[in-house]
Amino acid sequence: MRKTFDIHIHSNYSDGSNSVGEIVKRAKKIGLDGIAITDHNEIEGSLRAMEFDSAEFRVIPGIEVSSKEGHIVGLGVREVVYSELSAEETVKRIHELGGLAIAVHPYDRIRQGVGDLIYELDFDAVEIYNGHTLSVTKSPEDTMKGLNIPAVCGSDAHCLDEIGMAVIRVKGDPIEAIRNGDVKIEEHIKTSRILMNYFKKRTGLF
Ligand SMILES: [Zn+2]
Ligand SMILES: [Zn+2]
User: Fold this and answer.
1) Of the ligands numbered here, which is closest to the C-alpha atom of 38?
2) How many whole angstroms from 122 Cα to the centroid of ligand 1?
3) What are the average pLDDT values for consecutive 10-residue runs of the chain, which has 206 residues?
4) Nearby residues of 201 by Cβ (< 8 Å), 6 or more positions away
5) Which residues have a Cβ under 8 Å from the Cβ of 153 and sit 6 or more positions away?
6) From the CA of 126, how far away is ligand 2's center (Å)?
7) How much distance in Å is there from the Cα of 128 to the middle of ligand 1?
8) Which structural domains are found in the chain, ordered by start?
9) What Rg, from alpha-carbon coordinates, does the chain have?
10) Measured at the alpha carbon of residue 146, what is the angle toward residues 143 and 152, in degrees to the nearest 5?
11) What are the beta bridge partners of residue 6?
12) Ligand approaching nearest to the C-alpha of 37
């Protein structure tokens, strides 16, 4: 049976709103089988979250690295990968640490993604749906053309409401499943909710 993981979540160790404990509680409540906390250039929240790892609820370590050429998630990584390396060096470092290098939101119109480097560098997966992406410069279908690595997705949640909006469904260990290319993706992205949260934050009105 496949299990459901949200592998792209931010805690208040970077720019997320919630503590690791709150994130884990919420993820369990909505029925996820596990998560990865992937804070920007910061590993502490992810390591804290590992304390909640169990057979029933898996917590995978991870980090979202701001490389010079765009954001890259290192999944399965337990230490900081320094930002401001080139994308190529970042991928190499993530591999040295035993992790998977995932090109996240590569074609986001607003935020920094690695774009066409997904076709050149040794990425293990590409995130084709991201819960925080409002607009892309290349469709998921076109992105995957000629690419021989699995497509994944993640909510990129920065608050509790957003957790689980884009998830992967895998058999067994998520890292191994991605390595083997046996991943299904599901998105439940509600753009209206993202916009509402944005205005809520900005205006404090509702
Ligand atoms: Zn990002
Ligand atoms: Zn992110």
Assistant:
1) 2
2) 19
3) 97 97 97 98 97 97 98 98 96 98 96 97 97 91 95 96 95 96 87 62 62
4) none
5) 8, 127, 128, 129, 130, 166, 167, 168, 185, 186, 187
6) 13
7) 13
8) 3-203 (3.20.20.140)
9) 16
10) 50
11) 35
12) 2
